[in-house]
Here is the input.
Amino acid sequence: MPVSPAVLPVVLALALSGQGHARAATAPPAPELIQAASVLYGAAQVGGTIRDWCLSRAPGDRAVIEQGFAAWQVASGVPQLEAYLKAAAPEVLPRLRALAVERRAQTEAALDAGSASPRDDCRAIRAQLGTYANLAQLYPAEYARTAALRQGTPVTTAPAQPAASPAQAGDGGPFITATNFSPFNRTYVLKVLGAAGGQAPFTAGGPLGPGAFRCVREDTDEDSAPVAAYRYTLNLYGDGGVRVVQASVRPRSGAAYDLKDQAGTFRYDRASGTLTVTADGDSDRLDDLIVGAGSYDSLIRKVTLFNFFRAIKDRSGRTLLYGQQAYGAQADTTQTVCTPAGAPVGVSPVEQERRAQAEEARIFNLYRAAPGQGLKAAQIEGIMHHFSTRSDGINVLGEESVVLLLKDGRAYFNLRWTPSDLNVAASVKGEPGMWGQWRRRGAALEVKRGGSWAALPGTLAVPGASPERLSGDFEFFSAYTSGTLMSGATATTRVTYSFRPDGTYTLRGGSAVYGNLNTGATQTTGAAVGSDPTRSGTYRFDGYTMELRDRAGTLTRTVAFFWDRSKTHLYLGDRSYTRQ
Here is the structure.
């Protein structure tokens, strides 16, 4: 349910114009912090409008909506922002709230226009808020400036600092003067960069081509004493891939040891020099699941080997990468400096994934005939479908299997597309282990696959009519929790097909990871949300074949059937969707 791009900027521009007037009149302390807090709090008011819209559109889901909204507020630090503004600039709060109210109708109209299913959107309200009211993404500078405030760290009033003289500004250029280095100071950062061979003044941004960098990261504790030193090679590839290799760590006590390679993708903003990395999500550890890499001056982020923040150039035009984090309750820190080390080595993870997908597609289509040139309906006895569940810790996982039964007594156990596209001769020759026999034993069915006969569980699927007209939403939803409910992360996937009797469809999908980390001393919530592009087009459901043609003209043919004659569950592709 996308918010109109015009809504947020208008609200905040007006709010800040009034806030600037109040600041000039009353001269409150820390004006930069007040402004940053006001920007974020104003944006959060739009989140409140989204919550109210959901409560009116899906009143039956009030508990889920309120719970998701509260969790988003905590994760975004909204209560801390409000408490600070009440103390430092109370006159700003009514103005911010009033402007959000004035724009409520405009915001709600945008939500109505952008939502195909308000109930679905509102049941996943935290995902929606994380996408359309993401304070960190909307206002990264203000979000970084208020990091300590949003984590509940007391803010002390400091006298206003005089503007830097031209000579001071020349020491570091915009990279130094426009960046919050707390708990470090300007002199220390220049010293760190100088130790790596950098020559002041430094400027941010500019071109950043593919290359390798040799990185050194040093961790210190709250007393600024060294804790560990990391050394690794960082490879940036031209296709947006990134890989860390040859990584090792030497702790304060004990011997050095090697670390596993890390890989992912990166984005680079040439204007600001900001470098953002999205690392692999193959870990099931809570803090890896709920925290994105590349954070800066954050008290809640897990330190990773991708903790650089900006690419900078020194006086000679040499490119360095610099990063820092404050991640402990006191002043625990990391500092990373990466220096050029030639061309990137090895294959980019992006290219590696492309090759893997190409090979997977090759194998997937190895025994596929031309559309409609495979099995005929007269050759098919039916498809046996079986659904079961199993427990995995606190999770209940659904598992499905399908077996294609032919009238000549053969059974096929690797059905990946519609039977009408199966090249039986090639499959029997190339994957003989996927073929067996079937027979009736009274009212039951049995199969034999390289051994003795055994019962075949499940029920015979119900094919579509010629053609089958569908109406309504069919949804696939899965959730998996790593850890515990009190201290863990839950990854969810929701995909919905909306079918209409006129032969058209819309496909929506997305995933999210919600986490709650309770260490006993602190409790942290977080969310990472991703959304697949919405697709629409036409469909044709005939027998065991579903054809989907999107607006771009791409045709997809796959196996499809109902579990039973109630037509509540639709098996499509490789999983089942339930009628909503």
In short: The longest helix spans residues 31-57. Residues 2-28, 156-174, 281-303, 517-525 have pLDDT under 50 and may be disordered.
